[in-house]
């Protein structure tokens, strides 16, 4: 029975890639002093009775480096979109101009930059925890196969393979975090 054991390392790597993709999405929502439409992605608006992403209730544009505009399609949702942005914790004060909401991006001060690097660190740690949990799942499959009669050599081979995949993905998380922190601290 042990000869049949084949750990799906591609699936394990794909799930770990998902944790990294999630990290990149979370980091994109952190503003770095430059305007970006992606910083609005995590914000949900209570539209038509359900939480809806901003990009599904209006057009998000970046007309200049320190300005994001949202052209809301339904006039009745302008107030809700403005409220969602104010309550999001982005630290941006929306300005209304009819159905267009303008978001001037203020220059980040040193204290706010340090705060954002800490938030980025928390996001990265969450990604590391997800990757470690996936590693544990892989190791549990190996232990189960060992109990079913897998040889010790096979066990060591699969454990080394899982650890190698884990180390590669943890390194990717660290590199992504370093890049984002450098971007945040750049004046």
Core attributes:
about 190 residues, four-stranded antiparallel β-sheet, two-stranded antiparallel sheet, about 55% helix, elongated
Would you mind describing this structure in some detail?
This protein has 187 residues and is of the alpha+beta class. 54% of the residues lie in helices and 16% in strands. The protein starts with 8 loop residues before the first helix and ends with a helix. The model has no long low-confidence stretch (mean pLDDT 86).
Summarize the structure.
By secondary structure, the protein is an alpha+beta fold.
Q: How many runs of DSSP E, i.e. beta strands?
A: 6
Seen as an oligomer or otherwise, the chain set is single chain
Percentage of helical residues?
40-55%
Query: Roughly what is the average pLDDT, rounded to an integer?
Result: 86
> Biggest sheet: strands, sense, closure?
4 strands, antiparallel
Name the overall outline: elongated
Give the N-terminus to C-terminus distance in angstroms: 60 Å
- Poorly predicted parts: none
